[in-house]
Structure formats: structure tokens, C-alpha cells
Amino acid sequence: MDNGASSYRRFLDGDESAMDEIMRELFFPLVFFVNRYLNDLPAAEDVAMDAMTELFVHKRRYHFKVSLKTYVFMLGKSRALNYLKHRKALRETELTEAEALAEESELERRALDSERKRAVNAALARLPEDQRMAVHLIYFEELSYEEAARVMRKDRKQVDNLLYRAKKSLRAMLGEEGEELL
Amino acid sequence: MKELNEYTEELHRRVDLKVQTRRQHRRRLLAACVPLALVLVLGTALVWPRLAARFGGEEPRDGLTCEGVIAAGQAPDEIPELATEQKEALPEPDTGAASTLPHDELELIDDPQSEWNAEGIIPSDFSFRFIWGCYGISSYDSESGKLVKTTDATRPEDYVTTHTLTWEERAEAWSLLSALELEHYPADYDPYNAPDAEQRMASEPSRDLVLTLRADGSEITVSCREICLGGVVRGYDEKARAFLAACDRLERLLTGTPEWKALPDYEFYYE
Asked: Does B7 touch chain A (CB under 8 A)?
């Protein structure tokens, strides 16, 4: 599986339908990932859309040296951090708490394909941000340690440590059941 | 949440918009850059020859070499080294004025004297002494500024004044004297008679021309004692004619100064 790289090649060759394939494969996971930074679903959708737009407008920036998914997540992360920097100026849509919960659970359903992942996701909210991101990228998005390290701008060893601490915390929170989930 | 196809449509819309915006920006940039590039190219083409002449001294400046510009005060015929085309390009000499550098050339330089000196065109220790005349000897020493109209007077001290060279005069004098290459002339020299000439040109009365150049720590003097008065007689070769032309130009330069003109008329005239 090439995480959309072959689709992107077809897009570069002029096949517009390849855009739709990439969207289908990466958009919701990207929104879900960005929302971990923003905790604001409409904003996360917008930021994810921006990242995808950048991918298709600047056609030669992606150099195929990392998987397309890694590259898109890197774009998403940088856009999310940028958004956080200017959050006050950019905030447009306010959802009620109930709407927000409903939206998030819908997104979770679309982005996470198994009950097991959803159960872990519920516990993730209580972890520090770095650990949460490491678990998200490796267990949910199934990136390799190296790819996750690239997205997080850390080295492999740091990602290893984060995961170790995240697992320990999750075990403490979820008990034996949690150990099985991971 | 919207459905995936709605997001995909939104993506297509955003990509199209962004591509259009980028194209517009590129067109605007080009529209701004093309005239700018033209201005730069034209500006460079106009300014470069002048800058090159000013800093390099090798490129032609308005069709003149650097030497040609400085020597422009001379009548073209008096500059034997110049090619015919260069002579034609030279401006007419201003025989009455002390400063003979073309005015527009002077305007190019904000602080000409310091720039010329800073670039080493004129050695800082440059000075000259020039003695000329028939009965009463006239002289000038640029080091002291002492200008003597004549020594043949009841009160010679009335014919002495001081003149400090303006930078244009200094530049012109340096140009004339350095172009002559006085070191290639004998110390005792007769520009009207070749050393091996069988018949010698002479006149009664005769005249003296003594030219001393001091620069770069050395001093060269060429003395022409009791030589022909000249007039219709020209130097015996190109080198001699260049020497006489330079002396003539220096004489006109010094006798054109306000200080010279302020001195009393000659007491004695000779026929």
C-alpha cells in the first residue's frame, strides 16, 4: 500500500479523478488528526481542507521521499499550529456543546474504523498532547515510527519514549482491558 | 458533518480559485517586472560608460578617452598623439578661460578633486615649475604658487604674485605633463633642432623654456635654453611638437589666471 502516492502520480499526469481518491483515503483521518490540535471541529475541517488544497495547488512540492499520508499529515500539523497562532482572528463558527459532541463522534466514526480504536480514543483525551499524537499516528493512522517522528518533528527515540509512557498511562486508566486494546 | 463528496467539491473549488489567484499574481508580477527590467537595462546602458570612464579610466566617455577630456583645452592640432577621429571629437579650446574641462564632465563629479586624488590619478606630491620668456623671464612654481610675470622691470617685485592652482588646472597640468613623459627628453633640449641636424634653427632674440615635473618622489627637468622664438617654426618631430604644445598650453593657462591679469602691464616692450 502506498498511502496515495500512486494516486498522486496519476493526478500529476492530469487525472483529476485521482484527487477524489486521495480525498477519500486521507481527508477524514486528516481532520481527525488536526482536531487533536485544535479541539474545534469546524476549524479542523477548514485547516484540513487548506492542507489538501496546498497539496493539489503546489504540485511539485511533494517529492515522494515520504509516504503521501505522512506528507499530508505534516502539512496538516503545520497548518494547525499556524491556526492556533492566529486563532482569535480566525474563529468564525461557534457550535453548541451538544452539536460539537455529535460532530466529533461522527468524525470519530468516519476516521476510526474499529471499536478497539474508538475505545482507545476515548482514553486518549486525558494524555499529554505529545503522547496523544504519538498514539494517534502509530495506532490509528498506522504510520511507521519514522513517519510519525517526521510528522511530529522528533526523532525515533523520542517517539519510542512517548509511546512507552502513553501505553503505561493507558494501562493505568483502562486496566487490563486497556492493555489488550493496545 | 458534511458528506465526503461535498468536501471534495469544496476542494475542487478552492484549488481552482487558488490556481487562478496564482496566475493573476504571476501576471501582475510580470507586468511590473518587464518595465522595471527595461528601465534597468536602459539605465545601465546610459550610465555604465560614464561610470566605467570615471572609475576604470579605460572606457570611452562621450567618445573621448580620459586623456582626451583633460587635454580638451588644447587645440586638437597641438596634440600629435591623438588620432584624427579623436581630434575631430575634441571640443574647441577655450583659450581665454583658465578652466578648460568641459562643464558637463565636471558636473558628473560631486567632489572631483578628492575623487581624482583618492583614485591616484594625480599623485599627491605632484607639482611643476615652468619658466618661459624672451628678455624678461616669466615663471611659475605650483609648489609655492609663486607666479612671476617678468624679471625685466625697474621694480621686479611688482610683477610677482601668488596663484594656487584650481583642481581643474592641476588636473590639466598633470595630464599635459604626464602625457609628455619628460623622462624621455634630454635634460638640455632644443625642440627646433635635431641633435644631428646640419643646419640649426635660431632666432635673435632667443627664448628659454624650462619645465620641471615633480611627482612620486622624483623630479625631472627639461631645459631649453636660448632656443628659437618659434612662431611659424614648428618642432622638428612629433615629440618636439608635443613638448612645445604643452608649454604653449601651460603658458596660456597661467597667463589666463586672474592673478596674472591683475599684474601691471609690461614696463618694456621689444620690437
From this structure: yes
pLDDT band at A89 (very low <50, low <70, confident <90, very high): low
Count contacts between A and B (CB, < 8 Å).
38
Q: Are A123 and A173 in contact (CB under 8 A)?
A: yes
Identify from A11, A17, A52 which residue to disrupt to test chain B contact, counting B C-beta atoms within 10 A and taking the largest count.
A52
Q: Give A1-111's CATH code, choosing from 1.20.1250.20, 2.40.160.40, 1.10.1740.10, 1.10.287.990.
A: 1.10.1740.10
Instruction: Give the type of residue at A28.
Output: F
Nearest to A56 among B7, B10, B15 (CB): B15
Name the β-bridge partners of A20.
none
Cα separation, B214 vs B221, in Å, equals 9
Nearest Cα to B72, choosing from B104, B110, B112? B104
Among chain A residues, the shortest Cα distance to B9 is held by A20
How far, in Å, CA of B250 to CA of B245, rounded? 9
pLDDT digits (tens, 9 = 90+) for B221-262: 999 988 887 666 678 888 888 999 899 999 999 999 999 999
**Residue B22: its chain A contacts at CB < 8 A?**
57
CATH 1.10.260.40 holds for A113-182? no
Q: Round to whole Å and give the CA distance between B58 and B65.
A: 7
- Whether residue B26 lies within 8 A of chain A, CB to CB, comes out as no
From the CA of A59, how many Å to the nearest CA of chain B? 11
pLDDT value of position B257: 92
Within a domain: residue B116? yes
Nearest residue of A to residue B13, measured between CA atoms: A53
Statement to judge: residues B223 and B113 lie in one domain: yes
Q: Is the ipTM here above 0.85?
A: no
In a domain, B67, yes or no: no
Q: What are the tens digits of pLDDT across the range A112-138?
A: 667 777 777 878 888 888 898 998 898
